[in-house]
Amino acid sequence: MTSRVLLLNATFEPLAVVTAKRAVLLMLSGKAELVQAALEGGAFRSESLSVAMPSVMRLSRYVRVPYRSTVPMTRAGVLRRDGRVCAYCAKRADTIDHVVPRSRGGMHTWDNCVAACRQCNSRKADRLLTELGWALRVKPGPPRRGHGGVLVLSVEPHPTWEPWLATAA
Question: pTM for this one?
């Protein structure tokens, strides 16, 4: 069963990703309505009620969201931006690495962090790329900002969410 649900604003813009339990509570309280049920089926059942497992929900009332000019820097965001591919050897990445180590004045920013596998991250340690003779496969930078940019970086999108995420970008 899908444990995450895409929550849309009243205008069908992506707003957040919530747990299935939270989505059902929003629906039962009348604050949201079901737009699409989960493909896997399933339902929340009680003695007198059965509610379909949601995949996409829409708020009943419009919620104003303050605009963020920049996407917040997170570990999950760096891994999503780089497609979980190591910036040094192209293997599967599971950690992030600071290109210029923080111990040498490097900052914790989008331009200085890349996805890295554990082996490369350990070998590089607190050294510069020039000291090792390494090169980056791609130049790091902030992710492109779409309307749902923060949302998409926070969690792996479910295939049933594509119609709503594509219209927001």
Answer: 0.64
